[in-house]
What we know:
By secondary structure, the protein is α/β, with parallel strands linked by helices. The protein has helices at residues 3-11, 23-29, 34-40, 48-56, 74-85, 95-102, 141-154, 171-177, 191-200, 239-243, 262-283; strands at 15-17, 42-46, 61-67, 89-93, 110-115, 131-136, 158-162, 186-189, 203-208, 214-215, 225-230, 247-250. The radius of gyration is 21 Å and the shape is elongated. It has 2 domains: 2-115, CATH 3.30.1330.30; 121-283, 3-Layer(aba) Sandwich (Alpha/beta knot). The chain is built from 11 helices and 12 strands. It has a 7-stranded parallel beta sheet, with helices on both faces. Strands 1-4-3-5-2 form a 5-stranded mixed beta sheet. The structure holds S-adenosylmethionine. Residues 208-210, 212, 230-231, 233-234, 236-237, 250-251, 253, 259-260, 262, 265 line the site of S-adenosylmethionine. S-adenosylmethionine (SAM) is lined by residues 208-210, 212, 230-231, 233-234, 236-237, 250-251, 253, 259-260, 262, 265.
Amino acid sequence: MNDHRQERRRIGQVKEVTSLTNPIVKDIRALSQKKHREETGQFMAEGLKLVIDALELGWTVRTLIYAKAAKGKPKVEAAALKALNAGALVLEVSEKVLTTITRRDNPQSVVGIFEQRYLPLARLQPSKDETWIALDRVRDPGNLGTIIRTADAAGASGVVLLGDCVDPFSLETVRATMGSVFAVPLVRTGLSEFIDWARRGDVQLVGTHLEGAVDYRSIDYRRRATIIVMGNEQQGLPGELASACAALARIPQQGRADSLNLAVATAVMLFEARRHLLTLESKR
Ligand code: SAM
């Protein structure tokens, strides 16, 4: 028996679950519904790497589930031990139970149930060299997940969700973030609260608009902390939000497409804004 397993025995027992009607399994399965995620404040993340990253980043784990077939693998044992140490429930389950929980035919061998986390708007005080993204009523879980992943990769500081957005902690969005959901702070707020906050703070809102007056490459992203504001997939930016922006940027297009996909437009904007800041840093 390896050290992790001995240690794990000392701390607490891992529960074996094989029945699909087990109430814990039912509860975890219910996390696929937004209502249940909101009531419990929890969400599911799949994959050993993601779970290890989340534990290392200090996210609160409530339950760790691993496949019986993964038992004894050093990294799985280490993650289970860490979860037990943190007071989480650890379940060893059959492949059938994992398939049911994740609603996938070839499920990952480790799944974590974590507490959701949002940064309150009042605590958002970005410094001059930071870039944030604000998304107005984003509807598509794949778009949101891709944007969170892109924000992470581009070195953005976080994402603000405005109004009635899709849930960042849905299984589909979490999958699309490829783990970046644990690395990118999220703020959730209403439109008018956000506009009031931006007016009071030392930030510049750069809106993006198909009719934008300014080429996105000619904006100075270094003057103040920048929040790049992206419109809804169908309706674009509402007038109230567009008027609160210091500039409305346009990404020039060719061809017949009338607009870029929201996540693609966000990536173009983010990498340009970060390029400006990195260029400044290298000149220091
Ligand atoms: N029918 C919508 C409209 O009229 O605005 C199209 C929305 S577009 C799919 C979603 C968002 O991506 C836009 O609100 C804007 O924020 C951004 N976007 C897409 N293409 C853009 C472009 N060429 N220039 C600036 N922003 C763009």
